[in-house]
Amino acid sequence: MKWVSRAAPVIATAAALAGHDLLQRRHALLRNFPVLGHARYLIESIGPELRQYIVAGDNEERPFTRDQRRWVYASSKLENNYFGFGTDNDVEHTPGYLIVNHRTFGRTTPTSTRGPDVQGTVPCAKELGAARGRRHAFRPASVVNISGMSFGSLSGRAVEAMNKGAAMSGCLHNTGEGSISPHHRHGGELVWQIGTAYFGCRDDQGRFDLERLKDRVAASPVRALEIKLSQGAKPGLGGLLPAAKVSPEIAETRDIPLGKDCVSPSRHTEFSSTDEMLDWVEMLAVETGLPVGIKSAVGDLGFWHELTELMAQTGRAVDFVSIDGGEGGTGASPLVFTDSVSLPFRLGFSRVYSVFAERGLHHDVVFIGAGKLGLPDNAVVAFGLGCDMVNVAREAMLAVGCIQAKTCHTGNCPTGVATQNAWLAHGLDPDLKAVRAANYVKTLRRDLLKVAEAAGVEHPALIPADSIEILTGQSVATPLTEVYGYRPDWGFPSPSDRDRIVQLMA
């Protein structure tokens, strides 16, 4: 019969698979249930996708809910990013729920039309490097900027899309510790992140090379240098890029040997104390004229007390501080580090800001926050706590096509964002995705400005912390100042910076 001849290959394949399952010893499930047991592994492998599209509710997924992703996607495409029929959040029964108190009267009047235009910029309320008189001090044109994600971690096409998007939106693009690649040279201004391996500014033995740094600064639109002490995804850990992933382009970008494992140490070798770090900061600032800052997740507060004490006593100082929340990060790491090492953004940032404010240094430093701050409500809290700018990482990935498949650590990103697989990356069109990245940044700035106007002020950095409340039950709402022990005058730029940003926004 014809059906028998047609089914014979299938039956033979199933029989061979059953024989293999019965003879192998690694999986008890397959020995006991040959062939059928494979269904369990198939369902397990596609479990995230099943939950994402079929099982989970709009507010259940993590790290970004379906509603949050929909807002990013719609914003990046300039589609309708409004939500109708009221909130579907259980406001009164969600501990830590955020409420912004709008003002009946304020210094500024919100516009009455929404309009499609998202072209306006929202500049930083402080000048980066001005307090220390750096030669190339400047006022960042955007309070929203793209956070550090290295070429190597992301595909070249994704980096190119983000850099072009940064140029279109007038924001800064942090290189990540993987140095300045050809994909970072598409018009976007850069913050060069210097990690523990000194990629792009190292000699043949892996030691820091000042002349190489100066040469690359001179050849690239670098506006500031950021010394990475740690990051939220893997605080206190180094990194490893396996030899198989070290392509000729990555090797040239990072100044590393081709075909060998690329190791990032857990700590810097150019300095081993806070005092030595400040010497190194000042040396870099003098040699390049650029503002120099540090990026860190928050753990031991002793470092921050020592840093501010030395800044107050010696006059040496960092120009900016980037605080990364422990809940953030695009880098892969062991689960215990992802879940339980370093403080989450709000708690970590508020503690660090308080240390600076208690010594009267908070007006001389530009504070940058990161860790799911690419969503308007989280960003509003960051500004209320004293951030001058926010960096976006995973939200920028979503804007250029990420679908939260959570395969970044495997190299198999299906949308070509977090992979070095040429076939997967080829599906990402840098020119199209650049427009979406720019639209997202512009829309987030616009929404932050709208919230500021609702709070009666001209700029997000002027939103008072006490106008933001945290709900802890049906009848308890605590102002942000009380939650984090802030004094009434904390969280704002200096009076002169406030006056200047009001003039600029007018």
Automatic annotation (TrEMBL):
Coiled coil: none annotated. It holds the Pfam family Glu_synthase. GO terms for molecular function: glutamate synthase activity. SUPFAM superfamilies: FMN-linked oxidoreductases. One of its GO terms (biological process) is glutamate biosynthetic process. It comes from the Bacteria. Residues 142-457 form the Glutamate synthase domain. Belongs to the glutamate synthase family. This is Glutamate synthase domain-containing protein 2. It comes from Actinomycetospora cinnamomea. The lineage of its organism: Bacteria, Bacillati, Actinomycetota, Actinomycetes, Pseudonocardiales.
